[in-house]
């Protein structure tokens, strides 16, 4: 990299938006939540707003805004939403103006199983109605191409848990609802030929939302915090099993081969 990635630490921006009910309703439909968004704001529905709209010239080959606009100009070709921690301070209100402040808080280089990694932490504060309603720290990982990802073969006996089988339409609707242009979620030729996956990849935030919905049912009360971590990719048209974890206040998404694809913890 020609520029020190740490020079991006401290970069900030603010984005205004009004939390429109129809945007929330389309997001709720995509994740399988209640369409009565006026009564209940959809789970992690803030992800339907504040998404970058850039002109075609500023798109990268993967469909995301090109590196160097706000995120570091990393040459590492693969991008993933590695983890997130959300603190809920107060409910969000439909129809009210809101403002999202985003700051790059840390950039660090690591070596993982696939080679070099660049991890970028981004803090997001969503303010509305006179105060901060939600705080979120996201970790975005950029990695080397590495070897192709092998196909997932189902285990002889299905894992325990509530089966969720996201299909092509589900992935498309989630991409549309969150304005996510990442081609690994809808362009099979790109996902397999360029990024080496065996099929379309289920969005990390989509899985996180399903785990949040399970955590909310387990807790039986509004959540105060929710943290998740992606551990292995999950793929279209294969069942994902959602269940409580082995530790208290945890939930997991298990692939059909028995490997945990995402883990999450929560407090109420």
Question: Which descriptors would you attach to this protein?
Answer:
10 strands; ten-stranded antiparallel beta sheet; 268 residues; alpha+beta
Q: Provide the helix percentage.
A: 10-25%
Order of helices and strands: EHEEEEEHHHEEEE
Low-confidence stretches: none
Mean pLDDT: 95
Question: Structural class, from secondary structure content?
Answer: alpha+beta
With helices defined by DSSP (H or I, 4 residues minimum), what is the helix count? 4
Structural shape:
globular
The whole-angstrom Rg is 18 Å
Tell me the strand order in the biggest sheet: 1-3-4-5-2-7-10-9-8-6
The rounded distance between the terminal residues' Cα atoms is 43 Å
Share of β-strand residues: 25-35%
Largest sheet: 10 strands, antiparallel
Q: Tell me the total number of β-strands.
A: 10
Explain the overall architecture.
This protein has a ten-stranded antiparallel β-sheet with strand order 1-3-4-5-2-7-10-9-8-6, covered by helices on one side. It is built from four helices and ten strands, in the order E-H-E-E-E-E-E-H-H-H-E-E-E-E. The model has no long low-confidence stretch (mean pLDDT 95). The protein is globular. It has helices spanning 21-31, 168-177, 188-193, 204-219; strands spanning 12-18, 78-88, 97-112, 115-128, 131-143, 162-164, 225-230, 240-244, 250-254, 260-267. The chain is α+β, with helices and mostly antiparallel strands and 268 residues long. A hairpin with a 2-residue loop joins strand 3 and strand 4.
């Amino acid at each position: 990299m020609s520029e020190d990635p740490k020079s991006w630490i401290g970069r900030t921006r603010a984005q205004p938006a009004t939390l429109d009910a129809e945007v929330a309703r389309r997001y709720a439909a995509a994740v399988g939540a209640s369409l009565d968004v006026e009564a209940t704001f959809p789970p992690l529905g803030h992800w339907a707003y504040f998404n970058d709209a850039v002109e075609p010239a500023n798109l990268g080959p993967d469909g995301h805004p090109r590196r160097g606009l706000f995120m570091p100009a990393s040459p590492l070709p693969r991008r993933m939403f590695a983890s997130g921690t959300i603190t809920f301070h107060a409910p969000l209100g439909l129809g009210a103006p809101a403002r999202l402040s985003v700051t790059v808080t840390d950039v660090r280089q690591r070596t993982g199983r696939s080679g070099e990694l660049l991890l970028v932490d981004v803090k997001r504060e969503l303010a509305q109605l006179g105060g901060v309603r939600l705080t979120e720290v996201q970790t975005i990982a950029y990695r080397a191409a590495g070897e192709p990802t092998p196909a997932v073969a189902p285990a002889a006996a299905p894992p325990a848990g509530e089966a969720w089988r996201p299909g092509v339409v589900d992935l498309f609707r989630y991409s549309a609802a969150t304005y996510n242009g990442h081609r690994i979620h809808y362009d099979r030729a790109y996902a397999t030929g360029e990024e080496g996956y065996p099929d379309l990849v289920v969005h990390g935030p989509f899985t996180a939302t399903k785990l949040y919905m399970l955590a909310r049912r387990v807790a039986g009360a509004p959540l105060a915090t929710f943290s998740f971590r992606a551990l292995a990719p999950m793929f279209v048209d294969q069942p994902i099993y959602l269940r409580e974890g082995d530790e208290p206040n945890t939930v997991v998404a298990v692939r059909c081969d028995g490997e945990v694809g995402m883990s999450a913890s929560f407090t109420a």
